[in-house]
């Protein structure tokens, strides 16, 4: 019976069962939210009711302020993430494939990835100011060193048999790097970029903590000062939805751009 497969490791389940379980988890959280708010268990100042969040969304969609905040946050997130990826992908592949590069890069990377990004904000303000550059650098530093470690691990796990076979068939070092190593790394690289994009969204509120006048993080922090929990929840849900959209985009890009990825 299909019910047994629900508790069997590495076993596919019917699509209807998957969707049903997903809806159950969402309904459970929504039901608990309604119970706490409409049941009078929590005060309004601590947790807004669902209809209040919807009303806040309609108001801010109507005056376009929500889209203004989304646009500002997207520009910060994408700028910092793309900048980090441009450097992290090639360096990470080199770091995992060449011991000399690993010896040069790993000590600094291992040190920096344990430093909270929020601890660097005072220095970033001194070095780059309080404009959008500071916010982009927060996203950059929050993702770059994590990407390096993850991508280097992907590169290090590429089978040496693939490289040896290429040399046996007459490939030179450049051909091995560009036609064997990089294609073998790319599925894992895309997966790790998808993961670190999620981390980039978690740094958004930190990035917009100082001297911001727009953005979803700013909207949340500004609402916190007045205990407007409906606006806070609206900002949280918006970030979550945008995160799901970017996650879906990465999945589609992996399937379209890397047709061989099913083999890795």
Automatic annotation (TrEMBL):
<dbReference type="GO" id="GO:0055085">
    <property type="term" value="P:transmembrane transport"/>
</dbReference>
<keyword id="KW-1133">Transmembrane helix</keyword>
<protein>
    <submittedName>
        <fullName>Nitrate transport permease nrtB</fullName>
    </submittedName>
</protein>
<feature type="transmembrane region" description="Helical">
    <location>
        <begin position="227"/>
        <end position="250"/>
    </location>
</feature>
<feature type="transmembrane region" description="Helical">
    <location>
        <begin position="200"/>
        <end position="221"/>
    </location>
</feature>
<feature type="transmembrane region" description="Helical">
    <location>
        <begin position="21"/>
        <end position="41"/>
    </location>
</feature>
<feature type="domain" description="ABC transmembrane type-1">
    <location>
        <begin position="70"/>
        <end position="250"/>
    </location>
</feature>
<feature type="transmembrane region" description="Helical">
    <location>
        <begin position="74"/>
        <end position="98"/>
    </location>
</feature>
<dbReference type="GO" id="GO:0005886">
    <property type="term" value="C:plasma membrane"/>
</dbReference>
<dbReference type="InterPro" id="IPR035906">
    <property type="entry name" value="MetI-like_sf"/>
</dbReference>
<feature type="transmembrane region" description="Helical">
    <location>
        <begin position="110"/>
        <end position="130"/>
    </location>
</feature>
<feature type="transmembrane region" description="Helical">
    <location>
        <begin position="136"/>
        <end position="154"/>
    </location>
</feature>
<keyword id="KW-0472">Membrane</keyword>
<keyword id="KW-0813">Transport</keyword>
<keyword id="KW-1003">Cell membrane</keyword>
<dbReference type="InterPro" id="IPR000515">
    <property type="entry name" value="MetI-like"/>
</dbReference>
<dbReference type="Pfam" id="PF00528">
    <property type="entry name" value="BPD_transp_1"/>
</dbReference>
<keyword id="KW-0812">Transmembrane</keyword>
<comment type="similarity">
    <text>Belongs to the binding-protein-dependent transport system permease family.</text>
</comment>
